[in-house]
Amino acid sequence: MEQLNHLLENNRSWANGILANDPEFFKKLSTQQNPEYLWIGCSDSRVPANQITGLAPGEIFVHRNVANVVVETDFNVLAVMQYAVDVLKVKHIIICGHYGCGGVQAALENFRHGMIDNWLAGIRSLARRNQAELAALDSVSAVDRLCELNVLSQADHVARTTILEDAWERGQQVSIHSWIYRLNNGLITTLAPPITGSLDNSH
Ligand code: CO
């Protein structure tokens, strides 16, 4: 059986490189984590949260799933969000999608992909609600626009969870950021101003 020795060797040289700069780095980090950011992003291997934001271990709490979906019946994302907001007291929640997202593209396709179609049901519904705008675009642009709409929609979902409503109610400062990453240039774009308090219930 392959033992993945190359990865273990990479790990040792990475740890040694960090120790060369700061011999106490891991010792200090092992006793506490105090990240200011929660990242909710896509599982896509090309969008690694720490690397693309230049953050070290300990600086960003991370949740990733296919197409950066936040749905209020998903205990996984809720558990991550509650720990990040209530215990770690992160100041910023970043929803970061990416152009060319395979999950978002699958949500636009009219054929079965398997179980994942259930996971993507909310994005399919978002596509239907924006059908007029999406139908006017070529297929690549339609996927990219739906990637943007998906980020904005998931940020809205985060803001409407009891976790954020309660945090804002007790005066905790936490803002939600809508970002999108472009695979072919490595750059992040902001899609909307941060959400810094309770949204109204008119939509
Ligand atoms: Co993706």
Characterise this structure.
The protein is α/β, with parallel strands linked by helices. It has 2 domains: 1-32, no CATH class; 33-195, Carbonic anhydrase (Beta-carbonic Anhydrase, Chain A). 47% of the residues lie in helices and 18% in strands. The chain is built from 10 helices and 5 strands, in the order H-H-E-H-E-H-E-H-H-H-H-H-H-E-E. The chain has helices at residues 5-21, 25-31, 49-53, 75-87, 102-108, 116-119, 121-129, 131-135, 139-159, 162-169, and strands spanning 37-42, 60-65, 92-98, 175-182, 187-195. The chain has a 5-stranded mixed sheet with strand order 2-1-3-4-5. Bound molecules: cobalt (II) ion (CO). Cobalt (II) ion binds at residues 42, 44, 67, 98, 101-103. Residues 42, 44, 67, 98, 101-103 line the site of cobalt (II) ion (CO).
Number of helices: 10
Multimer state: single chain
- H/E series: HHEHEHEHHHHHHEE
In CATH, what is the class of the largest domain? Alpha Beta
The radius of gyration over CA amounts to: 19 Å
The helix fraction, in percent, is 40-55%
Which ions and ligands are bound to the chains?
cobalt (II) ion
The neighbouring-strand order within the major sheet is 2-1-3-4-5
Outline? globular
Number of strands: 5
Distance between the termini: 55 Å
Classify the beta-strand content into a percent band.
15-25%
Biggest sheet features: 5 strands, mixed
